[in-house]
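Task card 7
Instruction: Convert sequence to structure tokens.
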Amino acid sequence: MTKQQSSDFKEIRTHGTQSFPCAAYRTHTLGKGTLVKHHWHEEVEILYFSDGEFRLEINMESFPIRSECFWFINPGELHSIITETSESHWEDAVVFSPGILSFDSYDEAQIHLVKPIRSGKLLFPRCIMPEHPAFIPLRNAFSDIMHAFGQMQEDSAADSSLVTNDLTSQLYIKSSLLYILATLSAHGLFTPAETNFDKRVEMIKTALTYIKDNYHEKIYLSDLAKQVNLNEQYFCRLFKKAIGCSPVEYINEYRIKQAKQLLEESDLQVMEICLECGFNNQGNFLQEFRRRTGTTPLQYRKRLELH
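Output:
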């Protein structure tokens, strides 16, 4: 996939630190629904599913997950994770910039592996299952990375995220990532990137970017469709197929997300937040907020103060 030249609706979260752009994440949930919303980033992501049933969506393709496995997200790929049952689900991830694996010396690994990965010419495999001979070495290296960030036990808090500035830990992490690259290379699992890419994915990313930049204003379906040169009817079908909901539902969900953030981080009055987030009618705002959170904005803020 080629990189967008315009401002992308990328994930806002910073992965790692500026000097060491690599982070580990652990997510646990007992509920059914969206675990990770649609987003993309310029880093590589390694996902490890240890328990639960998931649906992983990547670039408008849907993949059911029913057993322990590894999945790889290449830079720029639009993806989301949905849990399929109300039982326990565990998902771990390591997100890193390929640049941390570069060498000053221009050796064979730099020429034929690291540089092509950084430039998007070489792609990670989509999935590695337990029966593949590379699986056990990958799981051992992945476990080493998680432990280098800090021992992550089964009972650790949900949505844990870890970074490290410790020199020794960073060396262990880099060596384990290089071991993962070596294992994938040894089994011939890297593939050259195709020159053509799915234009529909780029259209959806353009629409998401427009929503992010204009959510505080009135957004018409015609505005979104115009961004990708489609008629409204076809655009709505494409958007729902890719994201799983209508553009209007997504816009409202995004606005409520921003409203929650303002309730948490500012002293703005509810009416001010309502207008700031693109709701021109306070009644509609309160109704939508309650529908998505089960409470009112004032009650939501009070709960935060109690904690």
